[in-house]
Task: structure prediction
Amino acid sequence: MEWTAWFDAPEYEFARQVLQRGIATIFFVAFLSCLNQFPALLGERGLLPVPDYLDSFRRRRRPSLFLWRYSDGLLRLVCWSGMAIAATLIAGLPQLGPPWLPMIAFLSLWLLYMSIVNVGQTFYGFGWEMLLLEAGFIVAFLGSDQTPPPRTILILLAWLLFRLEFGAGMIKIRGGSEWRDLTALYYHHETQPMPGPLSRQAHLLPKPVHRMEVLGNHFAQLVVPFFLFAPQPLASMAAGIVIFTQLWLVASGNFAWLNWMAILLAFAAVSDPVAHAVLPVIPLDWHGSGSGAGARLGGADAGAAGSQAPVWWLAVVLAVTLLLLVLSYWPVRNLLQHRQLMNASFNRWQLGNTYGAFGTVTKMRIEIVVEGTLDAEPDDDSDWQEYGFRGKPGDVRRLPRQWAPYHLRLDWLMWFLPLRTVHEEWFYAFLAKLLEADDAVLRLLRKDPFDGARPHWVRVNSYLYRFASRAEYRETGQRWIRTLLYEAIPPLSLPPGR
Result:
């Protein structure tokens, strides 16, 4: 029917390719992260074992395959299955079939990963977990190569990006005064959870540049998102600004897949003609229908993808669109409230969430340093050796590594300890695993100073860290300057017989 043509967006085929393959790649990384870390953190012998967590009946309201039974073997099967499905989507294989085939593939990823997140407790309490789940659900309805990209689904993806960016912008404006007086970036590059290799250089930029960074951030998060819904080429220009600012965040820090998700979602607003105009190597005509006069900038006639969508598929897309529009009521209400929630879900299925981060910026970097000794009875002359983490600062000479989009969950939780308390259940369990020289936990670390041997004692110190100035680095070779503050947890040992 002619009236249904509006719902087809053939000029967004490049956007569909990026969104489907890109989000499938993030799912692959997420499942890989689970495969490598989940058993040590949350497995049967983990720091916060899932079987113990599931004993609480009230927590069973959140859907998960593991509600019936958890085992490390089943967890690994879920991870390998998720990675295999994601790999087929990255290769574009389900997209060659009917539209229900990539839909089933993405919904499978959504359900498998939600099963993990919903039992992941504090180690999976990050906003980008629900962001990946919500994006994966929406992308499931982008169809296949046999049908044009659905316009309403592309709008919903742009709406998800709007909530992510505008929500973060409003959190900052309503949060600490450092965002309003433009001083937030005096501190953030130094105190962010996991600095990257360029974070120190970014921190050492002149303060006027930092103030311009904050202004640029406010513009990108509070003004630009509205233009994602503007006519072309304005929508593509808004997406370009989002992509540029997110790439700067990728270069200057490690925020797992948060920034990469924002970059991918921005492509929902990029039309084929604009993409082709910027990079001519990107095809203007994906399905051989000819470019001709239809290749005008942002024109709806450019590069028609596939044929008109069948009525049954249009009905599915419209039903999902209506569902997500209804669920949008709660995040919209939250955006309008003075006490705005950050990274919150309003339903069991983690759809229609609210997002936002760094409403306040930490002014000082406090690091928790864990040490052990082989001495039977520790005293002032004991030889204490420091454990090294993969991502979080420790060795003052070591250049921070780039880890994103891979997520180092233990390192991230270590950053939160001085902001909350070191007396966390999982952290004491972690110290006990070090005393046991638990192989699974030690594999999460960069350096075990005892090469698998059991220390007799471990202790925890609190240090103040700051980036070395250029002069200090030339003089000492240190990238960090650290000062001991206090002993956060005195020496601990295992009970006799353990």
